[in-house]
Design goal:
alpha/beta; FAD/NAD(P)-binding domain; 2 domains; 7-stranded mixed beta sheet; 5-stranded parallel beta sheet; 26% strand; elongated; binds flavin-adenine dinucleotide
Amino acid sequence: MTTPADTSPASPISTDVLIIGAGPVGLFAAFEAGVIGLSSHIVDNIERVGGQCIELYPDKPIYDIPALPVCTARELVDRLLEQCRPFEPPIHLGHRVETVERQENGRWLARTDKGLTFDAAAILIAAGNGSFVPQRLPLEEAVQLEGRHVHYSVPNVDAFAGKNVIVAGGGDSALDWALALRTVARHVTLVHRRNGFSATDSSVASMRRAVEAGEMDFVVGSIASLSAPNGQLESVEIRHAEGSSPLAADYLLVLFGLVADLGPIAHWGFEVQGGRIKVDTSNYESTCPGIFAAGDIAGYPNKQKLILSGFHEASLALRKAYTYAFPEKKRVHVHSSYDAKLAERVAASHA
Ligand SMILES: Cc1cc2nc3c(=O)[nH]c(=O)nc-3n(C[C@H](O)[C@H](O)[C@H](O)COP(=O)(O)OP(=O)(O)OC[C@H]3O[C@@H](n4cnc5c(N)ncnc54)[C@H](O)[C@@H]3O)c2cc1C
């Protein structure tokens, strides 16, 4: 549904709201913006929509989205895209927003690294952890193998079918993926530097049960080097207390966690605390009037980094954003169930 974006760097694109981040919260925000009569454009620095859901756990089930007892992260993103389709928000992928400046007329001018500019009445930042990057393996030979034999996320489970897979890491992602892949791969070995984990107790218990049942292995050690003659990974050298030994592997999945980097966002003039944008919880506005934050990037006491929290935050933020886009108008609240225009748009988008 991605509406082809205007790629002309010359003229600023005018919009009521610029949404920074095409994760689940940014996508839902585009729908909510449309519902209350705001135009929006979405920008994301990566080439796909979906944020963490698609980059980190596309095939994992999510159980805590209201009225959706279970869906995979990918399915959730597909549904969010379908939900905002009636408003056709243009989505500009592969653009990182670098600067945001207030203009003399009170509107905002945002620029991307590739020269796109946006002239917006308000900005909603739904940038998650900022420009996040996985913590990489500090081995030169891993760079050549990245995306082929060394992976930092699981874009497609089927690629591991019938293969020897080493999963490195001790957090939830590492344990959950090791458990999930054992049903697909020929053999899975979890490698972690100690026999203690930062993963939840239930994941650790499931992993230990699977090891006892002979469904996978667990090795205490660290990745010392990779052997890949002719560019094909054959084995991984594991350093452990007694020395080191090779372990046959077709794929190495490294899940050491993400390095959160706010990147340029930290310099846009609002208050940032602990890597999060400080917001007023009555409207999720930052300390810069007209700039809002929702989703994982929003910081306030008792913040829960959950998708449903982000949906709520975006919804309230946009209601305040409306007052910047249309200062002369009083917005009348209409429940979606009674919104005839919305019903028409939704019907038209399914026609
Ligand atoms: C393994 C795992 C399992 C999880 N399971 C659940 C669960 O079961 N239930 C639940 O509610 N939550 C879960 N979460 C958390 C959930 O995924 C996050 O709360 C959610 O993704 C936050 O959404 P977001 O839209 O705020 O940010 P993100 O999903 O992080 O998306 C932010 C987007 O902003 C983009 N961006 C950042 N900076 C810029 C910039 N300057 N310019 C342009 N684009 C930018 C990024 O590229 C990214 O695509 C899980 C998280 C993980 C890692």
